[in-house]
Amino acid sequence: MATKKELRQQTIQALKTMPAEQRLAASDQLYQQLWALPEWQAASKIATTISSGFELATQPIIDRARAEGKVVAVPETLPHRQMAFHVVDDRTNFERSKFGLLEPVDGEIIAPDQFGLIVVPGLIFAATGERLGFGGGYYDRYLPKTTAFKVSLALPAQQASHPNWTVEAFDVRLDAVLAAQL
Question: What is the pTM of this model?
Answer without folding.
Answer: 0.95
